[in-house]
Write a structure and sequence with these properties.
275 residues, alpha+beta, eight-stranded antiparallel β-sheet, two-stranded antiparallel sheet, DNA-binding
Length: 275
Amino acid sequence: MPNKTGRTNRLPELPEVEAVVRKLRSRAEGAFISEVRVLRARSTHPQHSALLQSASGRVIDAIDRRGKNIILRLSGSLAIRVHLRMTGNLVMLPSHLLHSQTVRVVFALRDGRGIGFEDPRVLGTVHLHTDSELQEILNDLGVEPLSADFTVSFLASHAKRSHRPVKVFLMEQNVVAGLGNIYAAESLFRARIHPARLACGISQKKVKALHAAIVEVLTEAMTEAEASYSQPGSHNGMSWRVYGREGKPCVVCGQAIRRLRQAARSTYYCAVCQK
DNA sequence: TCGATCCTGTAG
DNA sequence: CTACAGGATCGA
């Protein structure tokens, strides 16, 4: 979210989570977890923090992403599922940083380093699942928007059945997995659709534009997220056209960007461009 | 279907 | 000091 200093926090949606996964994958796949330390029990809620101990003594066979979930697949048919929510991060840390203020869970490796779950606001979660449990959870997620399964007709058929505002509809993880508050707003702006329009009332033509906008926004954000994660400080992620720009001129028509409350969240849009 | 809740840093 | 940021979950 933007603040007075012009700095922007990185709210992890699909592109940012994917960047975290790629970076961690290159460093931690094949690693052996020698010890698990839960420094803040709330981070495993509603699971008991002791459950995570089952991860110790196991190898990280693979690291994947599904929606905004990070999956560490472990030897012995178990998996760790991490959700970053707002302020979480999952990173390889050297031993001297493993107990920093905001580190909530540590998966210590044999060489002294560890995978650290950092999360200042403690809203993110780290859960342990059996493979079958995990399968059930992931089955409840919708389609991956950057996969071939995400088609115009898929989006159209789900939109047709939803009587919710299209912005809220786009954030439902059981339809399209991975969109959050920022990219939902950005996609609607590019498709020139008003965020309060009911999903079922969107024309076929607009659904097609929305589909294209989602793919475009996420693809662009993915490139930017990768760059900012591989070269911290040199990139700030993609620039937003509406998100966080209340009162600032629309990049297309110059009208002041407006803010709307939807489902207790801020939605930014241009009242001229988005009808 | 919608509001409250969790949580803490930052802005006012 | 209060208000606010928001993803997912839960209860009305």
